[in-house]
Fold these 2 entries.
Entry 1:
Amino acid sequence: MHSALISLEKTFQPSTLTKVNDVLLEKHQVELWIKRDDLLHPIISGNKWRKLKYCLNHALTMGANTVISMGGTYSNHLHALAYIGKLLGLKTVGLIRGEAPATLTPSLLDMQQWGMELRFVSRSDYRLLRQYKQWNSLPNLTAGQYWLPEGGAEALALLGVAELVGEIDKSYDVLCLPCGTGTTLAGLVTAVTDNVSVLGFAALKNAGFLTVDVNALLPKLYDNWQINLDYHLGGFANTNAALLDFMTAFELKHQIPLEPVYTGKMLYGLYDLIEKQRFQPNQRIIALHTGGLQGKRGTLTPNA
Ligand SMILES: *Cc1c(COP(=O)(O)O)cnc(C)c1O
C-alpha cells in the first residue's frame, strides 16, 4: 500500500458494530446490528473509502497525477474523491451529469473548493461514459491520467470492501446493504463465509441490470446474494413521508444518523421485510451503514 494512503487511513475512526434494540425485532425474534462505516471519517464517506482505497493505490503505483471520474450533482463518490485528492496532492476531475445548475449544490461547492475540476456533461454523453469500465479505457487519456468508472466500479474496489467483512467479530446469517452500482455488494459477496447470505436493497428504480453488473465485477459465480428491487420508493433519491417518518423515529431512538438515499431506504425496507416475516426466528442480521451523510443536504423534502 502506498505510504500516503497508509498515513491517511491512520486518521480514520473504527467502524463499530452497534446492536439495535427494538420491540419489532424482539417480536419477530431477529437480531440486528449496524456496521458503522459512517463513523470512519467525518468527510470521506464510508463505502467510498472502501472502494477507492485499492483503486487509488493502483493509480499512485502507476504514477498517476490526475484521477478522472463521473457522478451526479450530490455524488458521494466524487465528494470523497475530491477530498482525498486534496489531501494526497492528486489532481481530480469530475464529469458531472447534466447541465451546470444555476447554483452549485453544497456537494459540488465542496468538490470545487477542494480543487476538483468540474466538467458538466449532457445526460446522453454521460450515459455513453458508462461503457468505459477499465482504468485506462477512457478515450483521449493523457500520460498521468487515471480513469475511475462511475461509483468506482472496478475489480480493485472489491478488495477494500472485503476488508470490512474481516472486521466483523460476530457470527451472523444475513448481511444487508444498500446498492447503487452494486460494487460494494460484490466486494461483500467475495468475502463472507459460506453460511452468510448478502441482501442488497436497490436505491434505483428498474435496477434489474444490477444482476448483470454485479456478476461482471465478480471473479466467479456466487449464489450467496440477492438484490431486493422493491424499496426505491419511486426512484433514486426520491422520498416519501413514510420513509422520512421512519428515519426520524429511528434516529431519535437509536442515535444513529441516516440519510434517505441509501441507508435510510435499506433500513426502511429491512424493517418492512421483518414485519412481513421474511426472516426466520433467531436470524442474526448485520446491516451495513455505508455513510453518505453529506448527501443528505438537499434531499430532505418528500417528493413522492
Ligand atoms: C455510493 C453509495 C452506495 C452505493 O454503493 P455501490 O457500491 O455503488 O452499490 C451506498 N451507500 C452510500 C452511502 C453511497 O454513497
Entry 2:
Amino acid sequence: MKYISTRTQAPAVTFDEALRQGLAPDGGLYIPERFPVLHQHDFSETLSFAEFGVRLLTPFLDAPECLKPLKAACAHAFSFPIPVVDLTAETAVLELFHGPTAAFKDVGARFLAEYISRRSDSAPLAGGPRKKRTVLVATSGDTGGAVAGAFFDRPGFEVFVLYPKGKISERQEKQIAGWGGNVHAFAVRGDFDDCQRIVKQALNDVSLRSQREFISANSISIGRLLPQMVYYAKASLDYRKKSGEKPGFIVPTGNLGNAVAALWAKKLGFPIANIILATNSNRAISEYLASGHWQPKPTVATLANAMDVGNPSNIERLLALYPDFKHLQREVSTFAVDDAEISNVIRDGEGKWRQAWCPHTATAVAALERHAPPGNWILVATAHPAKFETIVEPLIGRTIELPPALADLFGRDCKTREIDATFSAFRDCCA
Ligand SMILES: *Cc1c(COP(=O)(O)O)cnc(C)c1O
C-alpha cells in the first residue's frame, strides 16, 4: 500500500515515509491510495481488539518489514478495554476513555509510539552516531498528554511538549507535566499559536536538526488515524451481530480525525449506517454541509475545548473521500451544539441516562436528543468526565471518581519549565 497526498502534487510514499514526513511536501495530508477489499467473515467476534486490529490494518501496512511492528503496535494500542455500553434497546455508547490519559487519543498515540520504536530500532540511520529521537508537540490540551504518555519512559526517545501557560486546565497540565523522566514540559508565556510557531521553527532549524531526529506525532499523522478505524469496525460488527441492525455513529468532532476514521471504516464495508458529526460552536463543518462551500473560521473557545478548531485540517481528507458533495450529504450530517446546550445535557445526563458526560461527549448526546432520526445509534464517548471536573461537577452536584490511571498522574508534581514565547528561549533549553 502506498500513501498519496490529498493535493495530488507529491509522489506516493510508503507508510513509514508518510509517518516520517507528517505533512506531504505539497502541503497536503497523506491518505491511502486505495481502500482494500476486506471479507467480513475474516472478522469473527471471538477476535480480541488487538487481533482484529492486525487483521484490519495488515493491508494498509503490507511491506514485510512492517508486519511485526504492526502486531506490537496493535497489542500496545488496544491494551485497555473499549466497551460498547447499552443506553437503550437501540442506543449504545462506545467508551473510548479507558486508556492512560482517559481520552480516545490514547489509541492513536500509543499505536504510533510503539510502531515507531519498533521500526527505528530495526532501521538505524545510515552513517554517523544516532541522533536523539525527539517528539515535538504543541498542544492546547489533550493531544500533548496522550503523546507524552505514549512516549514516556521509552528508551532512546525524548518528548518536548509546549503549551500556553495558564490557558489549560490544572488536570490537563498534570497530564503533560506530571510524567517527568524523558518528557519535558514547557509552559510558554503566550498562546497556542505561539507554541505552534516555535515548534515549526524548531523543525526547520538546521542546528537543532543536526543534533536531533524529529518525529512527527501531531494529529494529522496517518499513524494516529488508521488505528482509530479499528474500534468503529469492531463496534459496528458486534452491534449488528447482537441486534441484526447496522448502527450509525455520532462522533464529537473538532479537527475531524476521529470522524474521518469512522468514514474510512464505512468505506471498507463495515456495517455502518449514517454518521453524524457533532460539533461545538465552531461551525465550519456544519456550514460546509449546508452550503457546499468550504470556509475556515476563527476558532471560538467553548466548554468542549479539545474540539475548538475553526479550520480543521482533516477537511482535506473528508473532501478527498467524497469528491461528490451530494454523496457526502447523503451519508453524513452535522449538528452544532453551543455551550448552554452542552451544560444542559451534562446537568440532565444523570437523571435521563444515568451517565456523567464529558463536555465533548455531551455534543453527541445533544445530537442524539435533538437531531438524530429514530434508529440504531452508537454515541462516541471521547473522554472521561473526570478530566473536566471543573465543568462537570458543579452541573451534576457531586464529585466524579477518578479512574486509577488518572489518579496516579494527578497525584504527581508538575515539572515544567516556563519560557518566553520565542524560538531562542526554547532552543536554549534543548541544546
Ligand atoms: C481531540 C478530541 C476530540 C476531537 O477529535 P478530532 O479527531 O480532532 O475531531 C473530541 N473529544 C476529545 C475529548 C478530544 O480529546
